[in-house]
Structure formats: C-alpha cells, structure tokens
Amino acid sequence: MQITIKYPDDCTEREAALYAEGCFTLCQHDYKRKEATGKKDATVMTFRDDRTALFYRNQTGYVLELLKK
C-alpha cells in the first residue's frame, strides 16, 4: 500500500508531507461535502490554514490531493 500526495505550486514538498498527517485525523474530514468532489469515495479536508484537500483511496493505496489556497 502507498500514500500519494499531489500538491500545487504554492506548496512545498515539506509542507505537503506535514499535511499528510492530517489525512488520518478523522475529525478533519468533512463528509457533508462528499458529493461536491466528483469522486465517489473522496472526502474533503480543511486544515487550520484554510487549505483544502481531497482524500480518497484508489487501487494502490491512499491519495491526498492538496488544492490551492
């Protein structure tokens, strides 16, 4: 199993790795916004600095897709 982190240009590799910790904190998942993602099993996450991300599972593992601020 693997964890893939996709991050935009306004985020560094180090910051992206720090956001990965939040993936496994269930209180950050916003299940109400699930339908707006366009992905069946994706959840929307909002971090303290107002960055949002999609978190979902695919065939090889988990994917964290950070969005621009």
The CA-CA distance between the termini, in Å, is 29 Å
Order of helices and strands: EHEEEE
Helix content: 10-25%
Strand tally is 5
Number of alpha- plus pi-helical segments: 1
**Outline type:** globular
Uncertain stretches of 5 or more adjacent residues: none
In total, the number of domains comes to: 1
C-alpha Rg (nearest Å): 11 Å
Question: What does the largest sheet look like?
Answer: 5 strands, mixed
Q: Mean pLDDT, nearest integer? A: 80
Secondary-structure class: mainly beta
Strand share of the residues?
Answer: 25-35%
- Strand order in the largest sheet: 1-5-4-3-2
Give a verbal description of the structure.
With 69 residues, the chain is mainly beta. It has one domain. Helices cover 12% and strands 33% of the residues. The protein contains one helix and five strands. The chain has one helix spanning 13-20; strands spanning 2-6, 29-30, 43-46, 52-57, 61-66. A five-stranded mixed sheet has the order 1-5-4-3-2, with helices on one face. β3 (43-46) and β4 form a beta hairpin. It is globular and about 30 Å long. The protein starts with a strand and ends with a strand. The mean pLDDT is 80.
Relevant terms:
single chain, 69 residues, 5-stranded mixed sheet, 5 strands, 12% helix
Topology overview:
Elements: E1 2-6, H1 13-20, E2 29-30, E3 43-46, E4 52-57, E5 61-66
Parallel strand pairs: 1-5
Antiparallel strand pairs: 2-3, 3-4, 4-5
